[in-house]
Amino acid sequence: MARSAPAAKRARRPPSRSICCVATRNYGAQLVATYLSVLEFNDIPLHVLMPDIEPAEKESTAETLRACLPPRARAGVHVVCLEDVFPGEVEALRFYYDAFELSMACKAGLHHWMSEKSGVEQWLYLDTDILCFDALDPLFDCLGKEHSILLTPHSSEPVDDLPQNILFLSFGCFNAGVLGVRRSPESAKFTRWYRHVLTRLSLFDTNLRPPLRFVHSTALNVDQRWLDLVPGYFSGVAVARRRGFNLGHWNIGADRLRRDAKGLHAGEEKVVLLHLSGWKASDPSRFSGHTKHDFSADEAWIRIHTEYSRQLDSVRDRFPATYRYASYADGSPIPLSHRRTYLRHLAMGNRPLTAVFAKKDMFVRAAVAEQARAIQQAGRRK
Question: Are the C-beta atoms of 25 and 57 separated by less than 8 Å?
Fold first, then answer.
């Protein structure tokens, strides 16, 4: 993007810190935009997990990313693949999760890999729809001697609107798009647990009615609702109460964005990370599809989304446009019901199938049998 910060203003990185991201190849442009925004204010390396590349593609993928970055940052790019974080489970994960669910599960996998393999002391996970507007030191500073896990709440003060409270309960009290970890025995316990639950239960069921949910009694929201358990399960959890550490549609309210020599602000709150959840390139002036507030006339927002769109367009053609594992071997899309059937098969203790992406006919037959059972049960209830 056109934004830049003088080199003297960039925060010097301690060698034991890193940014972490997860991105499928078709989200490579968003990954580049996020990391470039971080580099404007921070000298810090990147560890990125790309769920749809093979081990032999790691170096070529890293070179593609490095070519999009300034020379000073290229050596700091480290690419991780699914086999690194979920060895022996790659094909199954790619089949029973869709691209979104798999990417969310990979967050936990990457946190565990960073804890076990990287040697980095502190790392900050960022979703690839986030832009950075200041030094990240205040977030890393939350991971001091007393804290080894950093969570960012959707709201740090009570909300009177009852439907909004219900949404927070449904989708999770904490936003999983910004999550910090400091290496410690307690954070190692957290990353092991997080990886364990998301290996099977990174499911986006919030929009499904109870009969269609994998867990009928509750609607899972991929990686995010699990974070509600973290403050009770683990000690040393810091909750970042500054909304500018993760500003999105859920906490911006009706505040206007403005920029001055001191940075980006929402109202009086200085913004470090702007989370563009719900933003679409097809409707760039709209801050988010999840909010009714109109920021389209804000000069600061016009500049941000214009530069962001330009940045995405400048590198988009360097990455594939589609997700590799959306279809069967014959090219037909994999229905969600087929993915859930396979997950239930494994959850019941059955062995993984070989060449599962070539077994479309088997899952079609299973779907027909399941529909027949449902009709029969409905008849019995009558």
Answer: no
